[in-house]
Design a protein that fits this description.
Blueprint lengths: L17 H13 L2 H8 L3 H15 L4 E4 L2 E4 L1 H24 L7 E6 L1 H18 L4 E6 L13 E7 L6 E11 L2 H4 L12 E5 L13 H7 L8 E5 L2 H9 L4 E6 L3 H5 L11 E11 L7 H16 L3
Parallel strand pairs: 3-4, 3-5, 7-8, 7-9
Antiparallel strand pairs: 1-2, 5-10, 6-9, 6-10
Helix pairs in contact: 1-2, 1-3, 1-4, 2-3
Length: 309
């Protein structure tokens, strides 16, 4: 016989039909054809025939048929152990190779102040409506490249004239302080006796009251001099100091609106002035294929529209 006419060996040729092994395993575990039949969704007679077919294939008895009872023969015990071990290996291998569900995530970058004072207090509204979506917030003053950083969107705080993307809201500013200090602030000149709470400016040549300038212009004040200054790295720390009654901070609206509404801060001189800066939503290329990111953008806009200015 020519070599090309020799049928290659098949490692499955020596195995009995696999469907017979499934019925055998159930019957061997339960020692009942009736209970095995219910498990594998066959009739009792079908399971009995499959076991007989398996025994014929192997040339040995696998069960002792007793009166209303079954018992495994020595050959049945050997085969049961092998089948159980093989099924466990198959289950483990299947679990390892089965594709894991793709994680649903929205990744956003924004300033620490926006994250702490506006976004995080509202974030539970989004997660309650989208419980399967993970939200990753990167709160930083650095301007991150969205695609390189694998981010879906950014909320940028920039001058209105340089705003790109979807406008979320504009900012207005006004002096705010704890209620315990407000009684001593009847006119802007009373600020001379207060502590200024501010943040370190990137440009150290800027005055510590640079963020106050829109309000000072509206009030017709040329400059602002206060008794002392406390500087912080982050705006949220300056706000916390104001809530604690340690001085006066320029309030950025609407970030501090809830603190004014619940009385932790007050605005002793009334409404504020437009700062000519605002928050804009910028989206990445990857966000175009992320429906959850698109839902997040719609949610941000709805929250901004519903919130007081």
């Amino acid at each position: 016989m020519h070599p090309e006419n020799v049928k290659p060996a098949n490692r499955l040729d020596d195995l009995p039909p696999l469907e017979l092994l499934r019925s055998f395993e159930a019957a061997a575990r339960r020692l009942s054809f009736t209970e095995a039949a219910a498990e594998v969704s066959l009739t009792q007679s079908a399971v009995s025939r499959q076991v007989q077919q398996l025994e014929g294939n192997l040339g040995v008895l696998l069960f002792e048929r007793r009166h209303r009872a079954l018992a495994l023969t020595e050959a049945g015990v050997v085969l049961q152990r092998a089948v159980v071990d093989s099924l466990e290996r198959l289950r483990d291998a299947t679990a390892r190779v089965r594709s894991a569900p793709v994680a649903r995530e929205v990744a956003i970058t924004c300033t620490p102040g926006f994250a702490s004072l506006w976004l995080i207090p509202r974030l539970a509204h989004f997660t309650a409506a989208h419980p399967q979506v993970d939200v990753r917030v990167s709160a930083t003053l650095d301007v991150l490249d969205l695609d390189r950083s694998r981010l879906d969107l950014a909320v940028r705080f920039v001058p209105i004239a340089r705003g790109n993307g979807t406008a979320l809201f504009e900012e207005s500013v006004m002096p705010v302080c704890a209620p315990s200090l407000a009684a001593a602030l009847r006119t802007p000149s009373d600020l001379d006796n207060q502590t200024l709470l501010t943040i370190d400016a990137p440009n150290h040549h800027e005055a510590p009251t640079v963020d106050w300038e829109p309000w000072l212009q509206v009030m017709g004040l040329a400059a602002l001099r206060m008794k002392s200054v406390l500087r912080f790295s982050h705006y949220t720390d300056a706000v916390a100091a104001a809530v604690a009654g340690q001085g006066v901070v320029i309030g950025r609206m609407p970030l501090l609106r809830e603190l004014l509404q619940d009385g932790r801060l007050v605005a002793p001189f009334g409404e504020g002035a437009a700062s000519r800066r605002g928050y804009f939503i910028d989206t990445s290329v990857r966000a175009a294929g992320n429906r959850d990111a698109q839902d997040f953008v719609r949610w941000l806009r709805a929250e901004a529209e519903a919130a007081p200015a």
